[in-house]
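Our platform keeps sequence and structure together, in a single record for each protein. Because each token names a local backbone shape, the row as a whole describes the fold. One such record is reproduced below, unchanged from the form in which we store it:
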Amino acid sequence: MRARVVRQAASYLLAYPDQALLDRVPVIRAALGEQRVATLDGFLDHVERTPLEVLERQYVEVFDLSRRHALYLSYWTDGDTRRRGEVLGRFKAAYRASGFLVDTSGELPDYLPMVLEYAAVADPEGGEALLREYRPSLELLRIGLEEDGTPYAAVVAAVCATLPGASPKDRAAVQALVGGPPMETVGLEPYLVNGDPRLLPLAGGR
């Protein structure tokens, strides 16, 4: 239950901020408090004390203007290759199999807030499997957010903490988590990490 509460909270906190989010903060805080989760208190404080227009601007700067903070899980592993279409289809198939109606009309199905809500509400077991499969994507996102000093790092770190084992300390350690055959890299050479096509964004690039 604790993991599900954290994932549901993170699904709200990683989405584009609006008045509905501000209204929801007391409920999120209470739910996390019941589960003795304090790691998101600082971020919730940040949301409550920051004007909405500033939150909106910060969100765009963090997530929309930097590849280092992509919220699309398969971006980190497949980029814009032809294979990614197949991967996105797998996400949709998982949603359909759960029996819940998941609205993917406005976002790609690997959008992290969507995956987190699916894992929290619709299919905890299936959602857990997706999050474990894309653990390297989550960890690379976390590392990028931490390096750039954004409060959103705490939210992604909280999500990573719901998965088994400690988070890798750096990108080299994340690469050790990656398995499977190399993926298509046509046109993606500038974005490879140490020649590994499975971890696309450059360690220090934008």
